[in-house]
Amino acid sequence: MKVAGYKLDLDPTVNELSERGYSLIGLHLPEGLKRYAKDIASCLEKSTRATIVIASDPCYGACDLADESFFSLGIEASVEVGHAAIPYLTQKIPTFFVNATPTIDVCPVIGKAIRYLEGKRIGLVTTYQWAEKLGSIKKLLREEGLFPLTSKGDKRISSEGLVLGCNVSAAKRIEREVSSFLFIGEGDFHPVALLLSLDKPLIQADPISNRVRKEELIKLKEKIIKQRYQAVDQAKDAETYGVLVSTKKGQQRIKLARELKEKIGSHGKKAYIFMADELRPDKFDYLKGIDCLVSTCCPRVAIDDFLSYKLPIITPVELEMALGERKLERYKLDELI
Questions:
Q1: What is the pLDDT of residues 7-38, one digit of tens each?
Q2: Is 329 domain-assigned?
Q3: Which of 182, 204, 253, 281 has its CB 3.0 to 4.6 Å from that of 308, i.e. a possible disulfide?
Q4: Residue 301: left if φ>0, alpha if ψ -120 to 50, beta else—which one?
Q5: pLDDT tens per residue across span 178-227
Q6: What is d(CA 101, CA 183) in angstroms, rounded to the nearest whole number?
């Protein structure tokens, strides 16, 4: 099935759903594909003869599956589109992951990116959507006399060369072996995670816009680092902290939240733990007497949304900086592992 420039390989999932005889199936889509929910649901209903229930809540990735919500309604199975499974997470109901592979040819933008690469040994990283293209990209780079390398990453990563906005272990594991990195994908979300974790040059090849970015990424990194140190500086004066913990399955770090509360207390300051499913700035407008928020949820909340919060919001790593337990010289991204 093709929708909006993406190919959805539904056949294997449809065959298994039909064989198991499910009569009530949940469908969970990323924001960019929700406008086609009716078409995808119709395809599933026609092929499986089951009733399809479409999740309308925001979907933030593989850390934010809908299986528990579906389970509460008696739904028998879930179809997750556009996200790779996080291998160590279990689901309440059988969950089927369907990739949404772009139909765009990546060769033109890779050809443009080659002249920006530094050295011969190139680290290749991408998102789940483009992972199937890595083989052809490697072939193209080898034809140009380059040596592309990929890595599997840690237990949170399901396939070779895959990076998440909260985990770039696939890149870090080969950083010493390469001269520069080539990221294939669109937007800032994944490049920012790479920029804050790597010391090697990063080049982004965006097949959607057919753009290559390098100098722009350097400026973006400088801007974000400046913002993060500003947040750390504001947090140094805090006396009372709100430690945020998520109920999303792939973001739950209650153990870390308790450790941070104890750490803050050891510095003669107070901390309170707040639970939320979805972090939004307006959820914390009511707080009185809280000077700073520390997010143990998705690390990107503090980095990407901090301007929307009235209070300073920092990551656990940044808290260590604010408390004087970690030096400021080398910024480190808080990663989910």
A1: 999 999 999 999 999 999 999 998 889 999 99
A2: no
A3: 281
A4: alpha
A5: 999 999 999 999 999 999 999 999 999 999 999 999 999 999 999 999 99
A6: 16
Select from 159, 190, 213 the last residue of a domain: 213
Q: How far apart are CA 283 and CA 18, in angstroms?
A: 42
State residue 263's pLDDT score: 97
Q: What is the pLDDT of residue 200?
A: 96
Output the pTM of the full model.
0.92
Instruction: Identify the three-state secondary structure at position 235.
Output: helix
The candidate with the shortest Cα–Cα distance to 318, out of 221, 198, 236, is 236
* Residues 113 and 196 occupy one common structural domain: yes
Does a structural domain hold residue 159? yes
Report yes or no: 4 and 101 within 8 Å, Cβ to Cβ: no
Are 201 and 251 in the same domain? no
Cα separation, 210 vs 296, whole angstroms = 36
Distances (CA, A) of 286 to 16, 237, 289, 293, 306: 48, 21, 10, 13, 17
Closest CA to 314 of 293, 288, 287: 293
Give domain status of residue 330, yes or no: no
Q: What is the total count of domains within the chain?
A: 3
Sign of CA dihedral 30, 282, 243, 267: positive
Range of the domain at 125: 107-213
Q: What are phi and psi of 94, to 5 degrees?
A: -55, 130
Residue 285 has pLDDT above 80, yes or no: no
Rounded distance between C-alpha atoms, residue 303 and residue 310, angstroms = 14
